[in-house]
Specification:
Layout (H helix, E strand, L loop, with lengths): L31 E3 L5 H14 L6 E5 L5 E5 L2
Antiparallel strand pairs: 1-3, 2-3
């Protein structure tokens, strides 16, 4: 049998209230930010997940800029 405990406080959630790792929500079309070395796929997948979880039709693109560094752009 499982014992029930009473008066135990619920810890704070670490979900959506947590600080965002990437600034997708603050971006307007044409805005971009630099991607840390080796994080290209992580940022790409995070951008899709972020938009889908909020049911937004926003689109992002991850590409190399003219200097050869990767950036993430909001394109729609």
């Amino acid at each position: 049998m499982i014992e029930i405990d009473k008066n135990i406080s619920l810890p704070a959630s670490s979900g959506r209230g947590a600080k965002a790792k990437y600034p997708f929500g603050s971006m307007e079309i044409g805005d971009s930010f630099p991607i840390p070395e080796g994080k290209k796929m992580s940022v790409y997948l995070s951008s899709r997940s972020w938009a889908n979880s909020r049911k937004l039709l926003w689109k992002f693109s991850v590409r190399k800029d003219e200097a050869g560094a990767y950036r993430c752009w909001r394109v729609e």
